[in-house]
Amino acid sequence: MNKGGKLIVFSAPSGSGKTTIVKHLLAQDDLNLEFSISAASRDARGEEVNGKDYYFISTEEFKKHIKNDDFLEWEEVYRDNFYGTLKSEVERIWSLGKNVIFDIDVAGGLRIKHKFPNETLAVFVKPPSIDELKIRLKKRSTESEDKINMRIAKASVELATAPQFDVVIKNYDLTIALEEAHQLVKDFVDKK
């Protein structure tokens, strides 16, 4: 892969607020960011749009991409449920002269950091508590109780990885978290 701009990774357990933070940062012109659209081997949920929220591809197609080494990182999150970042997506963004911002799971975020240690700012968004996470996930009303419990179990494991990230933002107060995230990213993209 040709090296281009910076890579900014936001990872966190589901319900921590990372997507809200990433959307806020994308709206800040001074950061010159473009969203990295992940590939997913699942169907669109609710209002999700192919090519905007995710590239929705079949499990077979996803496995073909794995075999061809087309991914910067990928993971089988649940059985036959794959997510990943296509190398072509990062190259597309770099060719626009922009920095890449990721909203991805913890394992994927750490893989990108290990592959591009100097170009990557890896940020972990920490929720106030597991209980608060459960409340936020239930408020979404997009998943079954079983799926929520699976996410909560996974969150406990993910929280233990926080020290492996460059920075941890505690999302106890969204306004403060947004300001902190903006300053962190601004300092990183301005650094030569």
From TrEMBL:
Chief subcellular location: cytoplasm
Instruction: List where in the cell it is found.
Output: Cytoplasm
**Which superkingdom heads the taxonomic lineage of this protein's source?**
Bacteria
Identify the Gene3D superfamilies for this entry.
Guanylate Kinase phosphate binding domain, P-loop containing nucleotide triphosphate hydrolases
Pfam families membership: Guanylate_kin
**Recorded E.C. number(s)?**
2.7.4.8
One term of GO molecular function: ATP binding
UniProt KW keywords: ATP-binding, Cytoplasm, Kinase, Nucleotide-binding, Transferase
What is the top EC class of this enzyme, as a single word?
transferase
Q: Which InterPro entries match?
A: GK/Ca_channel_bsu (IPR008145), Guanylate_kin-like_dom (IPR008144), Guanylate_kinase (IPR017665), P-loop_NTPase (IPR027417)
UniProt domain Guanylate kinase-like: residue ranges:
5-186
What is one cellular component GO term in this UniProt entry?
cytosol
The positions annotated for binding ATP are 12-19
> Which reactions does this protein catalyse?
GMP + ATP = GDP + ADP
Role = Essential for recycling GMP and indirectly, cGMP.
HAMAP family per the UniProt record, alphabetical = Guanylate_kinase (MF_00328)
- To which protein family does this belong? Belongs to the guanylate kinase family.
| Protein name per its UniProtKB record | Guanylate kinase
Instruction: State the organism named in the record.
Output: Flavobacterium pygoscelis
